Amino acid sequence: MKKNKVVVLGGSGFIGREIVTSLVSNNVNVVVGCRDPRKARFLEKIEGTGSVNIIQTDVTNRSDIKKVIQQADAVVSLVGILFESRNNTFDAVQANAPGIISEEARKAGVKKLVHISALGADRFSLSKYASSKAMGEELLLEKFPEATILRPSIVFGKDDNFFNKFSRMATLSPFLPLIGGGKTLFQPVYVKDVSSAVMRVLDTTETNGKLYELGGPSIYSFKELIDLTMQISKKRRLLWNLPFWLAQLQARCMEKLPNPVLTCDQLELLKRDNIVSKEALTLSDLDISATDCKLILPTYL
């Protein structure tokens, strides 16, 4: 790793902490920008030849971004939210913030910018999550066209919010819902493979201006992933086919909670497959062999 100082925005999250660990292990001094530094103190305990400095950062605040990326050789942006709240909207965090980040990175003379987006980002999607992700990519590239964009499918690993969530739900409920019949296709990608992709991108200029779709070696239906979760966690639950119209009624109630299990916007995402397109650049183009979730899930479920 040739970069001496790398700023990781959103470095305290599930994917971010894996990237920070890889950087510190490779003798990189990492600055983590996050909203609540107190919840990120665990990053300071990562062992390695590099170091970690945590700075309170609101990614929607230009002055915060300008401050955190000073003298950075590279910036890794993981800005994103799963659902909207009063203080965090998709437009502010996922659409506008990447534009601010790229503009300030350009002014600061940053040499490398890596942006973690999401598979399924689509300017014309009915999902605000997906459309705002696509808008964020566009605004980012306007100011920093040589940036590299990575779009992962659902990411799995020890602290993921997919397999762990359904395993917990199975502990509390005798049945699990198969939204839309469980037919939606996914291509789960290992968090360490995503981290490896970031490291490869940071180490070369050949990826500049390119977009990579990150998925695992296997494609699963939503039902197959739930079955796999139950099998590995050794739980037997009834699977209930939940049509989209009924799930919509439930989501309208759930999304009013502080930490909703399901929102109407997430339902829109479930109406489209979340798999790598045939013409896309992938992990293999970064010389990374994708890891199947069947090999890793038994280590933490």
Kindly describe this structure:
- With 301 residues, this protein is α/β, with parallel strands linked by helices.
- The chain has a domain at 5-157 and 188-215 and 275-288: NAD(P)-binding Rossmann-like Domain (Rossmann fold, 3-Layer(aba) Sandwich), CATH 3.40.50.720.
- 37% of the residues lie in helices and 18% in strands.
- It contains 10 helices and 13 strands.
- The strands form 4 sheets. It has a 7-stranded parallel β-sheet, with helices on both faces.
- α1 crosses α6 (191-202) and α3 packs parallel to α4.
- It starts with a strand and ends in a 5-residue tail after the last helix.
- The relative contact order is 0.13.
- The model has no long low-confidence stretch (mean pLDDT 92).
Number of helices: 10
Query: Could you please say which CATH topology of the domain at 5-157 and 188-215 and 275-288 applies here?
Result: Rossmann fold
Specify the structural class. alpha/beta
Quaternary state reads single chain
Indicate the percent of residues in helices. 25-40%
> What is the C-alpha radius of gyration, as a whole number of Å?
19 Å
**What is the number of E strands?**
13
Largest sheet: 7 strands, parallel
Which band does the percent of strand residues land in?
15-25%
| Main sheet strand line-up | 3-2-1-4-5-6-11
CATH class label of the domain at 5-157 and 188-215 and 275-288? Alpha Beta
Secondary-structure element order, N to C? EHEEHEHEHEEHEEEHEEHEHHH
Structural shape: globular
CA distance, first residue to last residue: 33 Å
Write out the CATH superfamily name of the domain at 5-157 and 188-215 and 275-288.
Answer: NAD(P)-binding Rossmann-like Domain
In round numbers, the mean pLDDT is: 92
> Based on the structure given, which CATH architecture of the domain at 5-157 and 188-215 and 275-288 is correct?
3-Layer(aba) Sandwich
